[in-house]
Amino acid sequence: MKVPNFAYGNMKITFIVTYYDEPGELLAECLGSIFSLPLSEGEREVFVIDDGSPRPLEGEMTGMFPGIRYVRQSNGGLSMARNRGLDEATGDYVQFVDADDALLPEAYAGVIDCVRQQSPDMVMFRFTNDRSCVSNVWDCGIASTDGSTFLMSRNLRGSACCYVFRLAILGDLRFCRGILHEDELFTPQLVMRVHSLVHTNATAYFYRMRPSTITHATDNVHVRRRIESILFVLRELHRLEMQGASVLSRRVDQLTMDYIYKVWAQNHSLGEVRATLAELRSLGLFPLRLRCHTIKYLLFALASRMFLPCM
After folding, report:
1. pLDDT (tens digit, 9 = 90+) per residue, 142-180?
2. 143-178: buried (b, 16+ CB within 10 Å) or exposed (e) per residue?
3. Could you give the CA distance from residue 249 to residue 247 in angstroms, rounded to a whole number?
4. Phi, psi dihedrals of residue 56, rounded to the nearest 5°
5. What's the pTM value of the predicted model, to 2 decimals?
């Protein structure tokens, strides 16, 4: 296994672990992955933000992992838990981790090395839900750019857990309360503020898929809420684009395509699709703009024009 050659400097990462009633063993695994990283006590700050769980865990977790800062608040949802962590953070960098997920220490050690040696505003990495296919070797195939160039030239992974970022670039940006897919609204706006961005193919985050979570619930109420949240995000990003943030246009195009596909996949109703397209047309987002972001997008955009006579 290739071990990064660390150049230690003055740097502290705040890990914001958001928790709501996940099994204790999963939270312990999550925290264990953080404490196994090559960081001294002064180089890490770990918050567990308990979003009003029925059973407080302060004694259990602080006993197992000394130095954890446990914060309990009234239930407000993931956005409010993350915002609380941001308000409490004192590190130079921030990393979000969901309580039922974990960092992959071997690859994340390379992320830390990159932060120490290059001091970028953000380091992006990949995630997986299958640990069996993850290599322990740090992938040195990295590229550097700025946030605006990245947004205009590459597809964005919206997950807020798939990057570590400099706290100083955050400003007043926070997660939007009361919606799902809040990462899709937060991440593009954060990336716009990035002057130096390193993106790598390293797989440094383990995402555990659990059917009991709200983002994977299949009942009609949750499906409808997810679709409505995507439309809300799309409206907000398009509003920012029209107000001058033209670097968001690629992300808006991609989300529009994804939104149309999800409406069809979830409903299989031509009537629902027609209503969706009419709403997007009123926003100026349908038919899709002819741009060669990817072959898939271009074909979808061409197909959207074929559908116009059916509306």
Report:
1. 678 999 999 999 999 999 999 999 999 999 999 999 999
2. eebbbbebbeeeebbbbbbbbbbbeebeeeebbbee
3. 6
4. -60, 145
5. 0.91
